[in-house]
Structures are given as C-alpha cells and as structure tokens.
Write a structure and sequence with these properties.
The structure is a homodimer of 419-residue chains. With 419 residues, chain A is an alpha/beta fold. In chain A, 44% of the residues lie in helices and 19% in strands. Chain A has helices at 3-23, 27-42, 45-61, 66-72, 76-91, 130-141, 155-170, 188-193, 209-218, 241-253, 269-285, 294-299, 308-312, 328-338, 351-360, and strands at 99-104, 110-117, 120-125, 145-149, 179-181, 202-206, 231-235, 262-268, 289-292, 304-305, 319-325, 343-347, 365-368, 387-389, 397-399, 405-412. In chain A, α2 (27-42) packs antiparallel against α5 (76-91). The interface between A and B is large, with 66 and 65 residues.
C-alpha cells in the first residue's frame, strides 16, 4: 500500500468508528454540536479571512477567472451566512430513529422501518469553501460521519474551516473524527476515496460535469450525483397564456446559471401563433436569445434556427430553444428524447393533460403550472439541501436530511418461531 | 461495436421503449397480463417439461450435482407453484402512482412524492428456471421492463418460459418487450448488460457470491445485491432463557441454507452457565456442531474451539459458533466487527437493552425476541420478494414491489413564480 493509500485508509477507518458513535447520538447532542461550531466560526473570522487570503493570492497569481475568485472569497458576510446555515440546520427535525410503515403480522410480530444514518459520506467539491461547513453540518445533523475533499484552490480556507469544525467537536460529546478533511492536494486521493467500499457508504460529488463523469467511471462506492439539468416548460393547448408567459419568463430569467433554469420551451401548435410573439417580445426585453424550430420561425422570423444540438444543450445562459409541437404526446416524446430527467413543467388548465404529464414524464420533478426554477430543497420545504440528485435509485431530486439517511427493518416479537 | 454488443444494445433500446409504456399502464392492465401468463403457463406444461428435459439431459451428461439437478428440474408441481405465484402477485396492491408526504408551501404550491417504476431492470440468475417467471412477474406488476439473463444450464427451460411470457403479453395491452431474455450463453453478454447505463436502471443479481463479487467489480449500473448473511442471536443477561432456547433452535435449524440462518450465538456471561448446557443438548439433538470461545468451552468442554475464522463464516450448514460476552456493548462490538449487516437479534426482557440493540445494531433487519430466520419478504408482509438487499442505499433488507419503484417529486401551482 502506498503512503497515500494508507493515509486514506486510516481516514476511512476513523470515519467508520466515528459513524458508529454518531448513529447513536441524540438530536440534542447533534444540535448542540452544530451551535458550538457556529459560535467558534463567529469567533474566528480573522483567522479564516487570513487563510482565505492565501488562497486568493495564489489564485490571482495563477490568473483564476473573476467568477472563480468570487466563489473562493470568504467575507464577513459569507461567514455570517455559514453561521446562519448552521443554526438553521440545528433547528431542523432530526429524521434519525423515526419509525414508519408499522404493521402487525398474523403471528403477532410487529414489523417497522426505522430511519438510520447512511454511515460515512464522502463529499468531493470544488472551489466554494462554504461547502466545508454546509456539507459537514448536514452530515452531522443526519448522524453521518463525513470525509471532505475540497478543491486545491481553496486549500488553506478549507483547512482553517476544518480545524474549526474539529476543535468545536472536540469540546462536545461527538467524536472529532465525525468530520475529516483530506489534507493533500494529490489528485489520486479522490481515486482512493471513491473506491473504499469498506469504509465509505456514499459519495456526494458537488462540482462540474467533468468531475461527475470521472467519478462515475472510477467510483465503486455509490454516488448521489447531479448530472444535467436540461429542463422544459410545455405550454399546452389549454394553457392560460398570461400565466404561461409569466411562468416561462420566471423559469428562464430567475437565474440563468441554476440547474432548474428552463432550456427549451415547447408550445402546442394551437396556441403558438398567439403565444410566441408575446414570448419573443418579453424574452427580448430580458436579453434572451431565442432559437426556434421551423414552425416557430414561421411565426417569429427573427428567431435563429434551432438544431438538434439546441434540444440537447443545457445553456445555463440567456438562450432558449423553442419548439412547436402538435400534441401533448409530441411534447412528452421530445422531453423523453432530449431531456435529462431533472425538472419539467406543463402549463395547462386542462386536468386530464395535467394528470397525464404528471404521471408520464419521467423526471425527478414534474410541475403543473409552476416554473422549473423552483427546483431547490429550500423551496420544497426540506430546510436545507446537499444537492439535487439525478439518480433514479435512493434520493431523487433535491436531497435534504432524509436523503442522507436510509431505513432498516425492526421486528419485535415475544418468541414467535417460524414454520 | 461487436455483434454481441449490438444485440445487447438493441435489447436495451427495446426495453427502454417498453418501460415507457409500462410506466403508464394501469394496475388492471398489469394484473390481467399476469393472469394471462398464468393461464398460458397452465396450458404449456408439456412443452415446458420437454424443454426442461433437454436441460436435464445435458446437465446429467456434464455430471451436474444432484442438488443442482433438483434446482433445475421443472415438474407439474413446480409449474403449479409458479402459476400460483403469478396469481398472488397479480392480487398485490400496485405501488405505482401513490402520492405521499404532501405538503403545501407558504406560497400555496403543493409538493408531493409520487411512486414510479425504476424503469428497466436486469435480472441475472443461475440455475433455477422459476426465477424467469417470478422475476418477470414482480417487474411487470411494479411497471418495470426487465431483461433476463438465466444460467446456461437452464437455457432451454428459460427460452421456453420466456416464449410463454412474451406470447401471453402479445395478447394483452402491454408490450411484449416488457420481458426479454438474453438468448446467448456467451458470458460476455453479462459484461455488456451491467454497463448499459443508457438503457438499464438497476441490476438484480440472484446467485452465488462469486457472481455478485464479479458484478460488483464490473457493473456501472447500480446493483440491488445480496452478499453475506452472517446472522447473530444475542442472549442478554435479562433474557427469558426458555424463549432464548426456542429462538436459538429455530434461528439455526429452521433451514440451514437460508441467509437468515443464525451463524453465531452470543450469550451474556451472567446466564451462560445456565443457558449453554441446554443449548448444547438441544443442538446436539438436531445434529448441529458447536464451536465455542474459551469461556464457552469452560462450560461445555465438548465444544470444538472457535477461531476468528468461525466468527467470520457464513456456514449455511449445521454448525454454530458460540461466544460468551460480558456486556451488550461487547455483543454489539462483535456484531459490528464480524457481522454482515444482514439480520441480527437480541433476546431480552429488559426494555432498555432491547431499545439500545434495536437502535445501535447497524443491520438491514434488527429483531427483538424473534429468530433471525424470519428474514423473508413474505414474513414481513411484502407479499413477494425479489431478494434481500444488503445495500445501504435504496432498498435495504427484503425487497418487494416497493423496492422496485422509486419516487419523483410532483409540484402543483397556479402560476406562482420564484424570487
């Protein structure tokens, strides 16, 4: 075993031991620990901003883009947001230990399912150092140990944040090893982490698509992952067109860069004549470029032509593909063919169309008369989210505390025997 | 692409198309299809027994062991059991489409989770041809398309059974491609199947550990898998010893070969003197060999000595490892160290000990005052099971229809916008 493999192995072993302690911690203990971390964070602004400055200096020297510098930067304000997040997560209901689906079998034994932590969660993330706190907090509250692996550009910031986490934990009843940061920038560390099936129960990658695709190939540990968000709004023949317009504008322009942003608008041929010119005018006011199918361009000749590449594209930019369809079936076929199974919406007043779309569109979130930009754990009432999963198994869609737990069966009897 | 890869690719494509149709099928359609299969099966005994005879002849020539021949054989009785299974599955409640966890957000939008099929399920199994019918029936009822890959020794039987499935389906409203059998004995086919992430949503391997371990290495599609069943019964200081004895005997002797069979008995030192001689007498009456720790052998010197290898072993045979522990903590440590996270039980009258064990033992099933041999979907009230999962994510423990489904988020609004 190489030194690096040995280091990772030791981290894994310690995490697994910590996970056992965490699994039996009460909600009070976990919440107290989160508040202790918040207090320590409040007291450590100077240290953190200093550590962060080293990352910023190094980044500037390497010529990091401004957007990346922004993500990297810690300020009194961003630190206060992290503290506030800790307090919010502390106040959320603890899913661990709850029993559900209890039935009594004919022989009198009682069968239930109990919610329990997943165990050890590996978090692999890129430049934002706030993930160090946010992810650790969600893992702690749900009773999981975590192994954090941040981006090399945020190295000093992450080390300083992890120190705070562990110092605060060491003053509580929870084990400090509940949170461990991999303190090497060796890229091979990730390769080991995602293969340690003996110690790590799940990997949550938070980063760009190239990271996710690499992990999908390499990982032996299951991933809770987020791939593409190619989201659609379908304006049905029976849509309220004013509502459709406001939904479409919000879905596209609320924020261009989020995974729930609408990337293609589908509109039924019966209403396209009326709807598309209004859409074009409003979108143009917002500076959104439209790329349309042939039928769309017959109605709005100023649109650029859309190709298949546009149906497939997650723009994350002020660009929208537009297609006229002849039926709800054609709309759903388009979504099945080109969509990414993230979030898709129908705008309609017709209850049958709404029911069909809701039932048949195979996406992690399906909306009726709502813009796709609502795809977010806070909006769904989860209180917090570690990400949005495009997996089909286990957690699908926004992942909150419950998505970081699993269920075990618990059976109670009075000595019944089988057979 | 090789011919084989192309063949698998085509199967995958057809399965995915069929899965879309199946996802929107009503329960009535699915149940009717299952009953149509049952009727056709009833009418095809002669054909099936003839096809099976070809497999049996080939197996005899290759000198297959008697136990394997037994598994391979189809008889009027085993065919009737398959038909009965189809009728039972048809009568189960359909999980698809049910809504849960509905909340209304402050802005008035309604957030729910809807149960939906997983999509395309690959089933890889070994000698028992009845799996062809059982697995297909569970997949159909839960709205999933399936791709079946049976063992080469049951090739002719499986082809004949798959023909019946597809013929029966072609007379219903469901697509015949809902069930496809991979009709090649080329071992590479499995390698392709478990990597087709574009078409296959989950693989359920039903076979020996070597198959599972191979798939764990090769698969890119998630597995719902079953590894070891190293199950424990812990007889607490506050156990009712008569109850403990009957639980222990049942847990070991109900059937030696099942994954829920007890493999190690742990007994608290305070009651070991009284309990172990009774256990030894009863187990000896059943022909079960005991292998004990030093303390056990001080009480029952006839026991063979147990080594670490015994704590790790899943005997699946009339052999039992026995260890005296000084506390419930030591019992739980033993289970955490040596157990496989399958099914573990405590026998106790003390409610605190029961609660601790239930909460802290990290197994897919944890029992209080029940023998581990209850680990079975039928016993839990699932109506049927496709297997017992030792995964932590998604389905854990016995997997019934619900384990073959997932949930999507469904949001309803009246044009609310974000921000």
């Amino acid at each position: 075993m190489t030194d690096l493999a040995q280091t990772l192995n030791d981290i894994g072993k310690r995490a697994k031991a910590a996970a056992r302690d965490l699994a039996r911690a009460t909600d009070t203990e976990k919440s107290k620990a989160l508040l202790a971390i918040a207090t320590k964070l409040d007291d450590s602004h100077a240290t953190l901003i200093e550590a962060n400055q080293r990352d910023l200096d190094a980044a500037r020297e390497r010529g990091l883009a401004d957007a990346m510098m922004d993500r990297l930067k810690l300020s009194a304000k961003s630190l206060a947001t992290m503290t506030e997040g800790l307090r919010q997560i502390a106040a959320l209901p603890d899913p661990v230990g709850s029993l559900s689906n209890t039935t009594v079998r004919p022989n009198g034994m009682r069968v239930s399912q109990m919610r329990v932590p997943l165990g050890v969660i590996g978090i692999i993330y890129e430049s934002r150092p706030n993930v160090t706190i946010d992810a650790a907090a969600l893992c702690l509250k749900s009773g999981n140990a975590c192994i954090l692996r941040g981006g090399s550009e945020a190295f000093h910031s992450n080390v300083a944040l992890a120190d705070i986490l562990r110092e605060a934990l060491s003053e509580t009843t929870l084990p400090a090893d509940a949170v461990q940061l991999i303190q090497t920038t060796d890229r091979d560390a990730v390769g080991y982490l995602v293969k340690m099936t003996d110690y790590v129960d799940v990997i949550v990658p938070r980063g760009g698509k190239s990271l996710i695709r690499r992990l999908q190939d390499e990982a032996r540990v299951p991933l809770i992952k987020h791939l593409d968000g190619n989201c659609h709004v379908y304006v049905d023949a029976h849509a309220d067109l004013d509502r459709a317009l406001s939904i479409a504008i919000n879905a596209k322009t609320y924020r261009y860069g989020i995974c729930g942003a609408m990337e293609t608008l589908l509109v039924h041929a019966e209403v396209a004549d009326k709807f598309l010119p209004k859409l074009e005018a409003e979108m143009s006011r917002h500076g959104v470029e439209l790329r349309g199918c042939e039928k769309s361009r017959n109605i709005c000749p100023a649109m650029k032509p859309a190709t298949d590449a546009d149906w497939a594209e997650e723009y994350l930019a002020p660009v929208l593909a537009v297609r006229v369809v002849n039926s709800i079936e054609q709309a759903m076929d388009h979504i099945a063919t080109w969509g990414s199974g993230h979030t898709d919406a129908i705008v309609t007043q017709d209850i049958d169309a709404a029911n069909r779309f809701e039932r048949e569109v195979d996406s992690s979130s399906v909306y009726v008369n709502l813009p796709t930009c609502f795809a977010d754990g806070f909006e769904y009432g989860l209180g917090a989210e570690i990400g949005i999963s495009t997996n089909r198994l286990h957690a699908r869609g926004p992942v909150g505390l419950e998505g970081l737990t699993t269920q075990k069966w618990v059976l109670h009897g009075e000595g019944q025997t089988r057979g």
